[in-house]
Amino acid sequence: MGQQSFAPDRLVRFCEVVERDVESGLYHGGAFRIARGGRTVLDVAIGFGDAERTVPLRTDSVFSVFSVTKAFVNVLVLRAVEQGLFGLTTKMADLVPEFTGAPRDRATVLHFLTHTTGMPGVWEPKPGVPWDRLDETVAAVCDLVHGTSEPGTRCDYAPMANHALLAAALVRTDPQGRAVAEILRQDLFEPLRMSDTHLGVPAAAKHRHVVPDMRGVIPIRVLSHENEDDFGLFTAEHNESVWAGASSTSADLFRFAEMLRGEGTVDDVRILSPRTVRLARQVWTEDLPNELYKAVALRAGYPAPPAYMGLGFNVRGPRIVNHQLGTLTTPETFGNYGAGSMVFWIDPALDITFVGMTAGLLPQARNIERFERLADIVVGAAL
């Protein structure tokens, strides 16, 4: 496969649509990568990193990836299951003993990956506090975020609490006793040669970093111990915010997505088994709605779609619904997204990998519509 696997005029159309969006002010710009069968057919940066159009985007621009960070933790949790450190059916309370109190103490690793723990989807345990240190975050979640329904009966997308606990499980079962940043670096980023991916924005990458323009989308301040900015987490050099604190490039995120397209392996590097990836891209939440996106749908005036959660990944699912992963993609298409600006997905049947990283956050409904439209253009270009 290669360029011939896509209609060239349709790839031009993709760029034209992005350029039109940028010119209209919908968002500032983006870096995009499209591949089929592992062969890149489009690798472009269009537009700017800021509203004033003073920072042209490049293909090596470093973006704050927000909740795409969760995907990195998801993969390492699945890897830990393969290594026998804990299981999908292990209760979180057995890994983090201070996570007590019914009904949440019945929640398993599976419930955490599928956002069905029974805890509400809170943005932060309490306001006005930096949540960039894992031990402090875990203590606050255990103390302040309690279960409101039986695990497995309701899907509430967790902006931060789930992955703080999943990361704590990784740290507490790590045979080498490493901190979470070291686990991510040594077990995932370095093996995949994701040299521009970190928790935080290293000093050497500052000149390429696209400082996020929140545009009023993030409903809370996101603080850091390193600075006094309202969204200082996204410019600090270091953090342990394993749910939203990573930075990366389109090339690095593409490497990660290609590992998933390869069912756990890219080039000569194996992270997961094929069986695990196949399980991860199946829907495990049946027809439960995602309560966060149920509210988005009601406000936007369309029916609330099912959550379609896999093992940590969003799945396109069997029905045609409003979805960031498109409507023309096939049902096992899976990936992750971040805060009105980031998405990656893999369509296993069509063998397509897509990475989109944009500047200028969009509200949730507009973001879903934008990435759904772009996904359908990509699939429409495939021959």
Task: Give me some keywords for this one.
12 strands, 11 helices, alpha+beta, 4-stranded mixed beta sheet, globular
The portion of residues forming beta strands comes to: 5-15%
Extract low-pLDDT stretches.
none
N-to-C order of helices and strands: HEEEHHHHHHEEEHEEHHEEEEH
Question: How many H/I helical runs?
Answer: 11
Basic shape = globular
Report the sheet with the most strands, covering strand number, pairing sense and barrel closure: 6 strands, antiparallel
Strand tally, please? 12
Helix proportion: 25-40%
* Rg from alpha-carbon coordinates: 19 Å
- Order of strands across the main sheet: 2-1-12-11-10-9
> Could you tell me how far the N terminus lies from the C terminus, measured between alpha carbons in angstroms?
10 Å
Mean pLDDT: 97
Sheet/helix structural class: alpha+beta
